Amino acid sequence: MKRRNFIKKTSISSLSLVAASAMIGCKGSDDEKSEEKPIVPLKNNIKPLVIATWNTPTAVNAAAEVLESGGSALDAVEAGCKIEEANAKNQTVGIGGLPDRDGNVTLDACIMDDKGNYGAVLCVENIKHVISVARKVMEDTPHVILAGRGAEQFAVSQGFEREDLLTEASKKAWEEWKVKSEYKPIINIENHDTIGMLAIDKEGNISGACTTSGLAYKMRGRVGDSPVIGGGLFIDNEIGGAAATGLGEEVLKTVGSFLVVELMRQGKSPQEACEEAIKRIVSKPNSNYKNFQVGYIAVNKRGEIGGYSIHEWFSYNVYKEGANKNIKSDYYLKT
Ligand code: GLY
Fold it and tell me: What is the whole-number distance in angstroms between the Cα of residue 51 and the centre of ligand 1?
């Protein structure tokens, strides 16, 4: 395939609140001194919660079902992401994802649990449920990242089936794109490139997951923010979690999800933290932000949520207290 000089042309150019609600063993009478009382979190005010990028009600429902039946946040985010990975109509995640400029569908994913463990796979072909492969990397290997053919081989060794991920619809879209071979990030409602999902379970623990086919018609081998810890996803069970969507290169250059969590650690609400992280991108010297989209979602240990993007049309789904709603995100660039 003729090499295209597209890079230069493109714009790539509670504090634990549990503590506040904990019953701390205190030493009063002599009798009590002899008996160590454990720190027992009060659980009756912890409500399961799921938040995910874009209009993803089915995925969020799947995660919520896991939580409501007493499952862990980790199981919930994996189950939720798998819904979109198996949805061939979603051309930004899993099977049916739009290919790179040479026609290869390559997937990226990562997962983080409440203990700070992380696993990721990068640029994987022929395997649909990369979020589950990322979890296997986290739980069953001494590593945190596997890439390319090695990741695919590992997946097959773990029982994952190889399948062709390029659907007829995505092949047709790619062939149409090839006529002009013009690469530019598209700013509209269709550009929902990634599912990032955060969940709090009945124990009050937070986990997160992120899965994507990345930018449509990207260079072969290109990897975005989604599988990179602190980029597309970051969890700190004492503070909260954050996930990103949009142009991964810009998220990576500001370590976006880590930044959101650290801003929450400093006392910002999830909403304020998302807004500040977007401002870091748009206020960079020579930022080309009018030509690309980035969006963040966040949750803190208290179950407060936030979301913010550069442009209009970003939304996120939230499950809380039995209701699953799509929320239109506030955004920076208002004309
Ligand atoms: N945010 C997904 C990507 O840039 O690949």
Answer: 18
Answer yes or no: 194 catalytic: yes
Whether 62 and 80 have beta carbons less than 8 Å apart is answered as yes
Rounded to the nearest angstrom, the distance between the alpha carbon of 282 and the centre of ligand 1 is 17
State the DSSP string of 70-86.
T--HHHHHHHHHHHHHT
pTM for this predicted structure: 0.87
| Whether the Cβ atoms of residue 176 and residue 151 lie closer than 8 Å to each other | no
Contact status, residue 236 vs residue 115, Cβ threshold 8 Å: no
Regarding the beta carbon of 214 and ligand 1, being less than 6 Å apart is answered yes
What is the average pLDDT value for the chain, to the nearest integer?
A: 87
- Region 181-193: mean pLDDT is 65
Q: What would the two tokens of residue 30 be?
A: 């002599």
**Residue 24 pLDDT:** 26
Assign 5 a pLDDT band (cuts: 50, 70, 90). Answer: very low
Asked whether residue 36 carries a pLDDT value surpassing 70, the answer given is no
Cβ(279)–Cβ(272) under 8 Å?
A: no
Ligand 1 atom 5: residue of nearest CA: 214
